[in-house]
Request: fold
Amino acid sequence: MKGPVDIDPKGLISEAYRIEGITAAECRSIFLDWALSLADGQETGPALHLLIARHGETNADHPMTRVLQDGVTGIATPKRRGGWKSRPRS
Reply:
């Protein structure tokens, strides 16, 4: 399924939904590869929403659906991890 801007040009997400018995860890690895292959300027959030609409609604129990949903949640609630401001001061 292609639109004006293909959000899954390598077919990584589509293929993940076809793999029988795929694990959440494997889905996370595929998701990372997908995210790294996004076109320059492609916003992750809208792409994730489109992928969820494309695949997740009919595959609610699939581990990739959960990974995509976690991706949306992670974008919506960024958290600072570490850095010099979190270190104790002497």
